[in-house]
Amino acid sequence: MTVLLAEDDAVSRRMVEGLLRRWGYEVISVSDGQQAWDVLQSEDAPRLAILDWMMPGLDGIEVVKRLRARDPLEYTYVLLLTARDQERDSIIGLEAGSDDYLSKPVSADGLRARLHVGSRVLRLHQQLLSAFQSCHFQATHDSLTGLENRSAISEALNQELARSSRTGRPMSIILADVDNFKRVNDDYGHAIGDAVLCEIAKRISKCMRAYDRVSRYGGEEFLIVVPETDALEAVEIAERARRLVMDSPVEQDLKISISISLGVATYEGAVDADKLIRDADQALYSAKRGGKNTVVLAQPSPELRTATATGASLQTSKPVQ
Amino acid sequence: MHPNNTQASISQDSRAGKSSDLQREREAALSRVDGDLDLLRDIVATFERESVVMLDAMRSSIRQMNAKQLRNTAHSMKGAVGIFEAKSAYAAAGELEMVATVGDWSRAADVLQKLESELRLLDPFFTDIRQGKLL
Asked: Which member of B33, B72, B75 has the closest CB to residue A15?
């Protein structure tokens, strides 16, 4: 474990540093509060800090206050060193956000015991954080495909709509549905059905850019949010996904080939997420009705169509074969 | 008992008491660094370098009546000598810190002199540490 030691007095610093190294800690040693703050803001900053109260520039109390104003998920355990031994001072230190304090001159036993407490608290914090992250992942992802789930993509969609509204740039969504999926389940069983869904999820994801968001929206339905993308570009992306799913059997052993149908809707201002999804759903319905294995771009609203009647991107509202 | 014998006995007791105090202080200093004599030797070397700088800074602070610098340096000196369990030097450094805090410049030079005397008393201790004859 790495420990940050901030102490302006060279003698005390040498002593604490020596003890820490003797006990197997890695030590980053600095002599003032500003340097300590710089280290604590760096990537992979130590999670355990020993700060002297009185230092030139930023003192230990100020460094602790700044630390505690940050994201609480990145917790740093702080042990405040002080020559002050009045109870009132230790209370000020604790109130400012330090976890513990140790009066100088430091004793090896006192320091070691406090480091053990700090390490224990940090271990517990790490376990709690891992559990939280795992719960968060489960709450936002589909357990079968590993894609984002409906609730996560809905949030992402709202964020992207807000961004488009702010920047005036287009954004699109693609709703994809596996054609005749029920037959896969009926003919080969649910385990094979699941494997087919996973493979389709993988292929759709492969067609997307790093900033596109792919989700499993329902049983065999996938919703993809494609930011900063107009209708024509979104149709091209959807078409790429359609072709890649069709390209080769999605289940190699049983040679199961399958297709998907896709509906595309583009945000051109003045629609909410529900309306955009309804538009994509209607386009998807048209794709199914038109024979499946097709990409269809949603018809723009009559008002928008009138307003942009000469716009090339909105003329491509027929199914793309 | 002859009166002189009583006196001699008290002196012997006093010497024995001082010696045992010294021994206790040395044991405490070693215990403070987890029994690591090399580390203690290293700390002494650092202290010998730093104390020269700190004393110069304190003299200069007194000349310039710079209370903040004097308080901070005396504070650092107090923390440093505390490592060696040097109670009298620790008290003198604390007194100088207080003198700076209240701005009692009439006493500052005397207290600094007292601190310097106390620091000189640490020399045999430091020599023993350097020679590995601590206990």
From this structure: B33
